[in-house]
């Protein structure tokens, strides 16, 4: 980061302030797996011309107003070298020329590290080693104060291009749903399930109020009350779902 601009772009939302405080600090790791090896010669231009313009927060730092103490986003000049990491893995931990274990350990390591507050709250890690799932991997680490998971994933996906036609926006496959037609019998048939769903929602809401005010949650590995819980190592695990499984879940939940 070479210099600061005097203009303060926007105030930080209450949620953003809480997510970047002494009480809580949450990061989002976005993983992109590639079928071919990565040529990082265009990394700087892609970040400068495509990634940074998506959101002004990607080139802003969080500062505290010296008069009222409110936190605000202040736009700065970004030194991309501070945000790009290309790690080197030891060949001793490779298994049949794959580096899955090394990648998992590396992601566990960076997930525990705090980003410096004097530069924009994101960084990119370019993993040039093959795994069982990919020839190369790119990991985006973004502070949750920059936005919610939906908006940040949308920002990352907007940096991608379609292989068949780069001029078209990147989209995910979607199933065509038949147009709904007003049908009295269908409405009557759906009424019991709708009533049951509403009743369950009311019961869940009431139970959440009781749990938050009268009953404590059970002790779990996440809620252990251990003094060193913040210092414990994080283990990264993943579960893969096929597009057909996702469509099946959407169909059963009747999600558009």
UniProtKB/TrEMBL annotation:
Pathway membership: Glycerolipid metabolism; triacylglycerol biosynthesis; Lipid metabolism
Any GO BP: triglyceride biosynthetic process
GO molecular function: diacylglycerol O-acyltransferase activity
Keywords associated with the record: Acyltransferase, Transferase
Class of this enzyme: transferase
InterPro entries xref list: O-acyltransferase_WSD1-like, O-acyltransferase_WSD1_N
Catalytic reactions on record: an acyl-CoA + a 1,2-diacyl-sn-glycerol = a triacyl-sn-glycerol + CoA
Superkingdom: Eukaryota
E.C. number: 2.3.1.20
GO cellular component terms attached to this protein's record: plasma membrane
Pfam families for this protein: WS_DGAT_cat (PF03007)
Domain O-acyltransferase WSD1-like N-terminal: 101-255
PANTHER family membership: O-ACYLTRANSFERASE (WSD1-LIKE) FAMILY PROTEIN, O-ACYLTRANSFERASE WSD1-LIKE ISOFORM X1
Name the UniProt record assigns to this protein: diacylglycerol O-acyltransferase
